[in-house]
Amino acid sequence: MRDFNKIKIAVAGTGYVGLSIATLLSQHHEVVAVDVIPEKVEKINNRISPIQDEYIEKYFAEKDLHLTATL
Question: Is the overall model pTM greater than 0.85, yes or no?
Answer without folding.
Answer: yes
